[in-house]
Amino acid sequence: MIYTVVMVSYNRTSKLKESIVQLLATNINEIIIVDNHSGKETRAILEEASLQDERVKIINLDENRGASFGFSIGLNYVEEKYEQSVTTFLDDDAYFDQVFLDNLKIECKHYEYRFPFITPKVINKKGMRLTMNRPMTCIPRSLFKVVKYLKNRRQFGEKNELVEAASFIGLTIVNTADDKKSLLIPIDYFIYYDDLTFTHRLAKKNGELGIYLNDLVVMHDIEGGVRKYDAFRLSYLLSNSIKFSKEVGDTLYIYSMFIHCYHFLNCLKNLKLTVFVRALLRKR
């Protein structure tokens, strides 16, 4: 089986360099890096990496259309090149080691490649589990499931279990030439909920949930598990939560209302209510 990585890059330098070095230290077959129209310094790093190791394939885009668009381009490249392969998705500040790859191969064979997706434990350099990259054990499409989701999110941790949706960081799928999974990636989200929507679609198409495997560990080089939102990011988070609710059959938009209320109260608490208002009013 061919094992590949699809990574999207955008104007990171030192972290991108480290991710490439770490991945090339494994016996991964190919690393496809889709660059979202970065500046000269980032593109120079990518060009140098591709010249030094033939396993690195660079796809340069002429505009930044978001991570999900880049992932769809990279996955389509893999689908066109290989009859069958296993692909792991990463941001340019994330990587894994040979232990991860060895364990992934063992787990794929053990489960006979049957799950629509596999999601790993994601930690930072301090060993902290990152809340932002934890999968959804259940999609909160009703008030009952919102409560269940919040409860499970606090308890989620040290055991393998089935999950309904997951983050792109370390997300792993099996590709076949006649099954274009790249078409399931929502390319209009730009940021937020693209990964959850993609994995929900994978599970729905496959008729089976994905699986979280605790022995698969991916490093995500960020300080903590919670982002500080500006109006730009928050606008996408709020609007895409509505899209996600619609996607998963949350006809009353309960999950989206929960997200809106949570961030309204958070902005109010931190005296940043203007950020919330600007996010709501921002045109996309």
What is the makeup of the main sheet? 5 strands, mixed
CATH class division of the largest domain: Alpha Beta
Number of strands: 9
Shape: globular
Main structural class:
alpha/beta
Number of helices: 9
Instruction: Name the average pLDDT.
Output: 93
Topology summary:
Layout: E1 2-9, H1 14-24, E2 30-35, H2 40-52, E3 56-60, H3 67-81, E4 84-91, E5 94-95, H4 98-110, E6 118-123, H5 143-155, E7 161-163, E8 172-176, H6 194-206, E9 210-220, H7 231-247, H8 254-269, H9 273-281
Parallel strand pairs: 1-2, 1-4, 2-3, 6-9
Antiparallel strand pairs: 4-8, 5-9, 7-9
Helix pairs in contact: 7-8, 7-9, 8-9
Domain Glycosyltransferase 2-like: 4-104
Protein name: WbrV
Organism: Escherichia coli
Protein model, in words:
It is a single chain. This protein is of the alpha/beta class. The protein has two domains: 2-220, Spore Coat Polysaccharide Biosynthesis Protein SpsA, Chain A (Alpha-Beta Complex); 231-281, no CATH class. The chain is built from nine helices and nine strands. It has a five-stranded mixed sheet with strand order 3-2-1-4-8, sandwiched between helices. Strands 5, 6, 7 and 9 form a four-stranded mixed sheet that branches. Helix 1 (14-24) links the parallel strand 1 and strand 2. The protein is globular and about 50 Å long.
TL;DR of this structure?
With 284 residues, the protein is α/β, with parallel strands linked by helices. The protein contains 9 helices and 9 strands. It has 2 domains: 2-220, Spore Coat Polysaccharide Biosynthesis Protein SpsA, Chain A, CATH 3.90.550.10; 231-281, no CATH class.
